[in-house]
Amino acid sequence: SILFVSLDRFIGSEAPAIVLIDVNTGISATDAHADHLYQAATRATVALTVVALMGNPLTKVLLDYDDCPSI
What we know:
Strand order of the largest sheet: 1-2
Number of helices: 3
Order of helices and strands: HEHEH
Structural class: alpha+beta
Mean pLDDT: 74
Low-confidence stretches: none
Helix content: 25-40%
Radius of gyration: 12 Å
Shape: globular
């Protein structure tokens, strides 16, 4: 089964696989959205998939990360 919830409802939980969607806003150290993305990404215990636009600053960060697989 697939569970679809907002991050606010999933705080404190974890799952083997997480798919993050709607991450198409800017990311910076002072951005509250960045904190939410971090919290969401750390809920995955086995696999994490992020769906983001290529022009998104987050996409550049992820693609520049050494352990990130190529698209």
